[in-house]
Write a structure and sequence with these properties.
The radius of gyration is 22 Å and the shape is globular. It is built from twelve helices and 21 strands.
Amino acid sequence: MDRLDNTIRPYAWGSPTAIPALLGTEPTGEPQAEMWMGAHPGAPSRTGRGTLADVIDADPERELGPASVARFGPRLPFLLKLLAAGAPLSLQVHPDLAQARAGHEDEERRGVPLDAPHRNYKDANHKPELICALTEFDGLCGFRPPAETADLLDGLGVASLKPYVDLLRAHPEDAALREVLTAILTADPEEMSRTVAETAAACDRLGGPYAPYAGIAHHYPGDPGVLAALLLNHVRLQPGEALYLGAGIPHAYLDGLGVEIMANSDNVLRCGLTPKHVDVPELLRIVRFEAGDPGVLRPEAAPDGEEVYATPIDEFRLSRYVLPEGAAAHDLTLPTPQILLCTAGTVRAGDHELSPGRSVFVPAGEKAEVSGTGTLFRATVRV
C-alpha cells in the first residue's frame, strides 16, 4: 500500500480556499482547482517507489491484477480528483468510445499536432465521469425540456431571444434543441454579445431561477455559452449526492467542492464559457439532444457498510464508507487496484494514517484493512 503525494492543478476557475481548508493547509492566494490521484501522464501521483505511472509500468499485472490488465490494458483505467470550483468551468461534452476512437484516428491521420489548440481528440478513449459533492455543489447537467426553457427565456423580456423561444416551442424536441444550439453558436458575434449582455442584466434583475445564469454571465461577459447554459438543467447537489455524466451530455460545474472520478481520457468538446477552441460541427455531432431529469445519484447500501454510486460503465467504481466511532475494522481487499481517499475524520489504512485529503494506492490483491472514525472514498474498477 503506497501513500500518495498528489499534484494540485492551479486552473483559473479553481477556488483558492476549498482544497486548503480540506487539507488543513494555508491558502497560497492562487486558485487550487484539482488534486489528481492516479497515474495520468499529465500529473501522476508520487509514491515511495517512484511515480505511480512508473510503478504500474514496471509490473502492470502485479499492481493492477490480471483481470484489469486483460480488460483495460496495462494502465490504471481511472483518474480520481478533488475538484474545487470557485468559478464556472467551460460548458462541455465528451464523446463515446466509438466516437473517440474514430476522432482520434482521423486527427492522427491528418497530422493534427497533439498540442494544437484546435485538436479535439487527445486519445482514443471515452471520458464518462462522476462528481460527488463534499459541500453544496452547483452545476449544469443535460437539457431542460424545451417548452420549460422557452418559458424561462420568455420571462426575461429580451426581444432578441424571441427567435430562440419560438424554435424551442417547435416539435420534435430534439430537432428544436439542435436548431437553437446551432443558432446560438453560429450567430454574429457582435449581435450575440449584445443579446448576452441584455440577457445577463435581466437575469441579474430577476434573480430566483435566473440567478445561476447571472453568475455565469458575470464570469463570461458576452460569451454565447451563457445562452447555451440557459438550455440546461441547473442542479444543486447536497453533500453525498452525485451526478453521472455520460457521453454527449452537455454539462458544466459552477461552484463547490467534490470528489470526481473519470475514465482516463482528455477528450473534451467545448460549447462555450471558454476562450478555447469551439469546434461547432464536431460538437453538434457529439451532443445528445435529449431533454430530461439530470438524475441526481444517492449512494446505495452494500455489504459491510459500503455505499456505492451506481454507474453504467466499468472503468471506475466509486463508493464511500462513513465510519462511526468505535466501528470494527473493514477488510477492503480486492483483486483490482484501489485508491482510498479520506475526506473527513481520521482513517487508518494499513500502516497509513489518513487525514482529510490524504490518499493511498492499494495494488490488486494487497491486504487493505481500514479503521477509524471518518469518511473514506474507495475508487476501483469493475472486471
